[in-house]
């Protein structure tokens, strides 16, 4: 909207060029170009860019705009109209996945704005729940009736078949009713509704030499008509058909029900307006070492970030794209506070207990460094108070409109293991996740135990409803000197990779569906004014 006009006799002919940034050397690479739209300062570009999206990675984007003056593909031959920088997460995390941002890059000039929208490509996330029964199947067993089961096969491009589902065996009956089963549409027919699905009927034998009763074919489209006369199938045994003139069939199979379930994704919720609230808690206990000493994990080095600062920045920069107000409560624990030296296990880093919010990750970093100067590192190391602090907020909004992520950065020496486990088990029922980043050289066995990936965490015989803790040892991501993160991207990735699944597990258990996204943006209609 409102691009600069660079043409003397007509309006600009704009094109947009998208660049992405390489992870290693950070150089910008051209990803693609839109079409050129002639003679307008308010172009609506049609060409879309399709890119891979990972919640846990930060994908930097740059949109450059040019006024195209000739057929040359060389961009330096055209007039530069400005550029816009953002991340893919910023677009996806905006209301309705629609981001509007100013175009910059030409000093002293207003270059207009750009509106970018993103949508997830549906790659057929549907599953179906189906149930079948059969009537009058052939009797195959000498002493008793048959023990029938069904085998479903999808056809491949080359005409071969791949098995995709087997039902259970129903014993000693010629009129079985099988249990309903759920299968993804991709597995059933690769998302192609007209592809042949073959169903074989067998009589189960203990020795594994199951007897073939017969078969029939159908397709997703036929099955999707549900229970009707179209979905009663004759089971045919080709050998018998060839031998016996009077052969009609070997029984029938009937579809009893067919329900389509759409699997929802993390992005569906974000798009529907679910907010992710990010809280930081920092370990201010004496085991970290005196902040004025270079050996301390809290060393106040004027020239570079300490371990806490590096971890905070890497994780925070990704999460902040999903937090609409970019205001983060930042807490500390395990320090003695001025003026009276009382020990606190949840104090506001900005010194304001009524309003512990900091603006952006930079605001959190600033408050962290300010606190280091005023508090005295002490102990013990109690996690439960900060976990309960966030849990109180999470407990007040269980409708799926908000989800809470607590980042605890610690040297891993914990004093209140039993209380912390109790807090985590209780929090596992709430819309929250906990990320623990362990800094320094300690053994992190206690943290691994809290992570619960190997053994689900429990307290007083109660098990956590779902896994909500992700632990990451920071030392795996830094170089030998301990001064540089080898890859901020890899650290953030490992820290955040479990969040979408933990988020979905909460929504699923609670039966919360994503809200519909706000209506897509429609450009205002330009009214042609006519003089009368």
UniProtKB/TrEMBL annotation:
Protein family according to the UniProt entry: Belongs to the copine family.
SMART domains attached to this UniProt entry: C2 (SM00239), VWA (SM00327)
Name under which the protein is recorded: CPNE8 protein
Superkingdom assignment: Eukaryota
InterPro entries xrefs: C2_dom, C2_domain_sf, C2B_Copine, Copine, Copine_C, VWF_A, vWFA_dom_sf
Gene: Cpne8
The keyword Repeat is assigned to this record: yes
Annotated ranges, domain VWFA: 277-478
PANTHER family documented for this protein: COPINE, COPINE-8
Gene3D superfamilies with a match to the protein in the record: C2 domain
